Amino acid sequence: MTGANRAGARYAPNDVPPSSSTQLKILVPGNHLMVDLLGQRDELLKVVEAAFPVGIHVRGNEITVTGEADDAERVGRLFEELVVLAERGHALDEESLGRTIDMLNRDERPSQVLSTEVLGGRKPVHPKTSGQKRYIDAVRQNTVTFGIGPAGTGKSYLAVALAVQALQAKEVQRIILTRPAVEAGERLGFLPGDIMAKVDPYLRPLYDALYDMLDTEVVARLMERGTIEVAPLAFMRGRTLNDSFIILDEAQNTTPEQMKMFLTRLGFGSRIVVTGDVTQIDLPAGRDRSGLLVVRGILSDIEGVAFVELDRSDVVRHRIVQDIVHAYERASEGDADGAGRGSR
């Protein structure tokens, strides 16, 4: 195979004696990219070697890969993608390299996923997985988008980033962030202060996302003007929300009636993003009363409404969080199997 990628990294099989192995030579355009590709002490190179059954030899800006044809070709494509990302200014580390390898193994193009910009500025926001890119694309293409998945998949964070981007682009005039104040083992009545002080801890993750993307003074000024509003879901009743980017977070803790009330607040020029994790329902009535579980069967055929499922492969927190999510999924499946056997 001989070719050149868009960034100029070239790789081609050398003439080797007939055998089951193939040798690819990858020429990286410029020595300055080598540290980005391999890591300060070759820690990234070691990740690649651990992920693929190939031998890798580096000399100058030349990388030689030896192994079975399919494996060597896949590593060649990996370095091609990494060169594109490095040239576009993406900082590579072990976690991002691991996600890049996962995408490549699913025959996806990491450079297309990771180069999508959600929000520029002091801290640019990009999708880190293909599932996150699908989520972002769905929000941009639809009026109402449901992002459903486990903790750590970036559902709320990306929604807030898209809202800030829409506000900065003057696509909307305000951002409204809301979530139900449902107790998860705590009792609201024992918390000090008025109703806003009591629900403030429930809204804290949304504040955190805002402060991560905008200066504290900017957030305070926008909130003072009403350009950004953060409020419990109960405060949405009776309103019509025009020219707004509206985010309902932790939607698994809404009842079907609350979900209907919220969705019918939508006014002209507005977009809605609803996020939730159906494995973390804190409603006293349980899963049968979660508005997030009910709504899909009701709205799935409506044009302009999208449902995006994220899973543990989209978790972008510490990698052990993926393992924790997976362990709970296995435990839940085991409980279901046990219940099924017990009912027979």
What keyword list fits this structure?
alpha/beta, single chain, 42% helix, 17% strand, elongated, five-stranded antiparallel β-sheet, 344 residues, 11 strands, six-stranded parallel β-sheet
Structure description:
The protein is of the alpha/beta class and 344 residues long. The chain contains twelve helices and eleven strands. The chain has a six-stranded parallel beta sheet with strand order 8-7-9-10-6-11, with helices on both faces. It is elongated. The chain starts with a strand and ends with a helix. The model is unreliable at 1-8, 10-18 and 183-188 (pLDDT under 50).
Question: How do you describe this structure in short?
Answer:
The protein has 344 residues and is α/β, with parallel strands linked by helices.
Lateral strand order in the biggest sheet:
8-7-9-10-6-11
Global morphology: elongated
Radius of gyration in whole Å, from Cα? 24 Å
Mean pLDDT: 84
Structural class call reads alpha/beta
CA-CA gap between termini: 58 Å
The succession of helices and strands, N to C, reads EEEHHEEHHHHEHEHHEEHEHEH
Q: What percent of residues adopt helix (DSSP H or I)?
A: 40-55%
Compute the number of strand runs: 11
Beta-sheet strand percentage? 15-25%
Q: Major sheet, described briefly?
A: 6 strands, parallel
Sequence stretches where pLDDT stays below 50 over 5 or more residues: 1-8, 10-18, 183-188
- Number of H- or I-type helical stretches: 12
Topology:
Elements: E1 3-4, E2 10-13, E3 21-27, H1 34-38, H2 43-51, E4 55-59, E5 62-68, H3 69-87, H4 94-105, H5 110-114, H6 130-141, E6 144-148, H7 155-168, E7 174-179, H8 195-213, H9 216-225, E8 228-232, E9 244-248, H10 256-263, E10 271-276, H11 291-299, E11 305-309, H12 319-342
Parallel strand pairs: 6-10, 6-11, 7-8, 7-9, 9-10
Antiparallel strand pairs: 1-2, 2-3, 3-5, 4-5
